[in-house]
Structure formats: structure tokens, C-alpha cells
Amino acid sequence: MNLPDAIRTARWMVRDTARQSLHTKLFWVMLAVTAVTTVFCLSVDVTGDVKPTVLDYEVPAILPADQLYTIGLNHLKLDKAVPDPLPAEGTPAAATLREKAIARGKEEAKKDGVRLISGEMTLGFGAFKAPVGRDREDSVRMLELWLVAVAADTVGVLLALLWTAGFLPTFLEPQSATVLLAKPAPRWAILFGKYIGVVLFVGLQATVFVGCTWLALGVKTGVWYGGYWLAVPLLVVNFGIFYAVSAFLAVWTRSTVASAFGTLLFWILCWVVNYTHMRMAVQPLEGMTPLSQFFLDAAYWFLPKPLDMGGIFYDAMRAEGFVSKVEELRAVQEAGKFHPELSVLASSVFTVVTLGLAAYEFEMTEY
């Protein structure tokens, strides 16, 4: 078979994936999740200060208002104007001390020419309210980062792996596969087309999720942060790496359960190896032999690197100051031992090799 026929076969597999997602109702389930999250975003409102305009040569002296108590209390301690120990929370003495500390904090901030920022974020159409020590734009960016980093990048990718784990085992059942294999089509093109179809399906869902939540938050708050869209390619790449493992397990076992939970366990293994390698890079374990270090380095470079991908995602979204970074990742970056380009390249090579092994296994399978 020539290349155009192989491409045509892969294209038909992409269409078959779309049909399968509609047939199994997965398409609508994932849309429902997006719809619920979008409604949540529409329930958000942020009131408070707007970030001031700062010239290039100026240093913005801005202080969240919720830090006034801490600053004022520290100054009172220096003046030895607070009792030791501090009064218990909830007592009249504690309330009096808090008022006194906040007043002192405001006094010190004004003296230093620091601008105070305060605001309030409401969720659930006003059902929940919480003070925010940020301006409106930063408050919305913080919420977007939580949506992407927690709801999409970690939970979302793992759920997508579990939900799509049945696509290939169902497709590889003898009664389904023999119909396709009876036609003059290379098996690698069939498997590759199915893989691309699933990745494109997840990419579409990621685009809809990011687009709807971005639009909802923009309409409600007036904040339109374009960097939020970087989440789409980063999420798709992260999913595609681990779905290659799911594809290999599907071909090897033809079991949805093995494919789903095997991929989940593999993700945990990769995260542990990635974390351990980072920790050893900044804090070597006493007594660790060169052979053990060699095997750890080999495992790190051979396996996918979910923690590295999280670091790349963190930096691309400029999340510093909004969401805490894993301390080991921060230490590795500060030590100059973090190489994102090589990490992505090694993970990509792993994906290609895994898909190649899956194609070979599919080619050798008797139907």
C-alpha cells in the first residue's frame, strides 16, 4: 500500500473515533463536565482594586491588604507592645490586638509609600465570599491557573486516560478488527489513525473547556488573559505521551481495565521516578552507590516526565506568585539542572518507541 492509501486509512480511523465517542456518550459526558465548569465560572465575580499603571523604570510598590495584620504585629513585637504569649483566638483581647496591628500596618505602609490592594471574590452567584489580597486581573488569573493546573492538567488528563481507555480494546476485539483487517490496509496505519483520532478528540474537548471557561470569566470579570490558551497544546502533549502507553497495553492485553489502570499505575511510577531524580539532584542521598544513581538517571531519561511537564506548564503560564511550585522542581531550576527541551524530546522519543512497539504487537497478532 502506498502512502496516500495509508493516510486515507488513518483519516478513516479518526472519523471512526468520532463516531465511537458519540456512540458511547463519552463526547456528551465530557461536554457536560465543561458545561458545569463554565456555569461555575459564570457564577464568579471579583470586586476590588484595579492594577495600577506602572512605567518601565518604576518598581510597583503594592501590598495585599490581608498582610497588614502580619506587618503591624511584627512592628508591635519590635516595640514590645504585645503580650507574650499572644491572646487566644476568639477572645476580646485577640480582637483588640488585631485592630491595633492592622492600624499599625496601615501606618507603616503609608509611611513607605506602599499602595494597598484589597478586594472580594464571590462564587456560586454570591453563595460564597472570600477576601482576596490581589487586584482584579491577578485574582482571575489565579482562578484560571487552578482550573488548568488542577482540574485539567492533573485530574483532567487522568480522567481522559481512564475514559478513553476503552476505545482501543473495543476496536481490537476480533469481531470488530477482522472487518477492518479484511481490507488491504496496513495495520500500523489503522492503529496510528486510531491513536491520532483519540488525541484529536481530547484536543477538541480541551479547546472547548479552555474556550468556554475563558469566555465565561472574561464576560463576568472583564479580564481577558490570552496566556490561558497555552493550556490547550500543553494538555494535549501531556495526554498524548501517556495515551501511547494506553495504546500499547490495549494491543497487548485487549482489556479496558488493564489499559486504564495500567496507564494510571504507569503515570504514578513516572511521577515517583521524576520526583526522586529531582530530589537526588539537589540533595544526594548519603550512601547511594554510583550504580544506583546510574539506574535512576536511566529511568528518568527513558520514562515520561509528568513533573517536568508540570514545570514547563507552570513557567509557560507565568504562574509564579499565583500557585506554589513543587519545591524540588524549584531547587533543580535554581541549580541549573532542569532542561525542559531535553525533557520534552526524551518524552517524545518514548512516545514514538511505545507506539512502534504497539504497532509491531498489532502486526503479529493473529485474528
UniProtKB/TrEMBL annotation:
<feature type="transmembrane region" description="Helical">
    <location>
        <begin position="26"/>
        <end position="44"/>
    </location>
</feature>
<feature type="transmembrane region" description="Helical">
    <location>
        <begin position="145"/>
        <end position="168"/>
    </location>
</feature>
<feature type="transmembrane region" description="Helical">
    <location>
        <begin position="228"/>
        <end position="251"/>
    </location>
</feature>
<keyword id="KW-0812">Transmembrane</keyword>
<feature type="transmembrane region" description="Helical">
    <location>
        <begin position="257"/>
        <end position="275"/>
    </location>
</feature>
<keyword id="KW-0472">Membrane</keyword>
<dbReference type="GO" id="GO:0005886">
    <property type="term" value="C:plasma membrane"/>
</dbReference>
<dbReference type="Pfam" id="PF12679">
    <property type="entry name" value="ABC2_membrane_2"/>
</dbReference>
<keyword id="KW-1133">Transmembrane helix</keyword>
<feature type="transmembrane region" description="Helical">
    <location>
        <begin position="188"/>
        <end position="216"/>
    </location>
</feature>
<dbReference type="GO" id="GO:0140359">
    <property type="term" value="F:ABC-type transporter activity"/>
</dbReference>
<protein>
    <recommendedName>
        <fullName>ABC transporter permease</fullName>
    </recommendedName>
</protein>
